[in-house]
Amino acid sequence: MILGQVLKSSPNCFGYGNSIFSSHIPLFTLSFLRHFGSKSVSNCNSREKLKLGLGNIRNLDDALYLYDDMSRTRPLPSVKLFTQLLSRVVNLKEYSAAIHLFKDISCNLGVSVDEYTMTIAINCYCLSNRVDYGALICGLCNLSCWSEVKMLVKNMIGCKIYPDAMTFSSLVDALCKEGLVDEAEDVLRIMKQQNVNPDVVTYSALMDGYCLQGRMVEARNIFDSMASRNVAPDIWSYSILINGYCKKKKIDDAMRIFREMPRKGLKPGVATYNTILQGLFRCGRDSCALKLFDDLQADGLKPDFYTYCNMLDGLCRNGQVERALLLLGALEHKEGEHLHISYYNIVMDGLCEAKRLDAARAVFRHLPSKGLEPNVVTYTIMIKGCCQDGLLLEEAKDLLLKMEQASLLPSEITYNIIVRGNLKGGKYEDAAKLFEEMDAKGFSLDASTFELLLDLLGTTEQNPIIFKMIQKLAPNALKQKLPSQ
């Protein structure tokens, strides 16, 4: 890490303003030129030199030179040495410099700071009267440095520095996204103890955390508690709860919340409608979904890409491929509507699942006339249709060849589908060749393909090709139990 890259006079990742090293431009330039393109230091005497250097720091220039050396040493010096360097910088009363170095040590170098390092950073904030500690918390959250965040908040409170509502909300949101909902609840309790009132953003973030874990009772309790604290839920709050209920297939609860929104003066947007549409289709309520689709347009909203994807996919999954084809036809004739390959992929997949391969082929053939080019997903869907019963394997191989000729690389899913097709069709040698090909590309057989291999092992009188494939895939413990061929 070159220190010059850290000390640019543009805002850094924690939102600080201009560089505090403006008076050290000669050093900055010299440091940059001195180390640009140089190799890491790794000789055995370097650490002793660093320790000696710590005792010879007389000014900030000395500290910065030493920091450059430390940041290039491999492996990196211990956190203890970095902490000692920070301590020397603080003794020089260069508090802002110490804060910048602390940021670089923890963020850019990736050194795991300890409580002593964190205490020095907090003291620097106190001594320099800086108020951007909230940005430091956000930065550490983005790096998932949770132990450092915990120490930082603890030491801040010890110094009687309390984060504001925005900082607390950012912390709650970051914890919830990492699945640390109970820790987020602890933050909420600290907020209340410090008389910092959680706002709708804080509560919504916590609700989202519970919904992501499927803990809908707790999410609803948070939602209900907002009213008792005079915090009005907004569209985002309602959407979070609706999405959580839909994922748990509690569509009636989702619909009740959805119908409540207009009574609270909130108009659902297209994104909220999309969530409900997907939930209704997942629960087999396709007639309700069709009505809601009409309601969306009656409310003056315009369906977007996700709306049409949800509609086409939902209809196909609920056995209404003909309706999906009609909707696709309507889109083709709708003025100003941008056709997307995903619409056709969904319908082709639905046709293949319904064993209507001829119709899927027709849609596939007409793509160029719609101004669309097949993508990896398109070819994979058609290959799957050919391989469903282990039949039409030559057509599947032909599609694979055309796919590669179009400079489209088969994915892991593509390979698994065609390997399974060949296994089902008894083409074990072809399956083995494809397996070797995908293995060379770093792809693996998925659970369904491996399960099929195991089933075949028991029904093919231990076919040597199947056996070799399993031996190559099996973990070492299982290999020892398999008889040798």
UniProtKB/TrEMBL annotation:
PROSITE patterns: PPR. The keyword Signal does not apply. PPR repeats lie at residues 164-198, 199-233, 234-268, 269-303, 304-334, 340-374, 375-410, 411-445. Keywords: Repeat. Belongs to the PPR family. P subfamily. This is Pentatricopeptide repeat-containing protein at3g22470 mitochondrial.
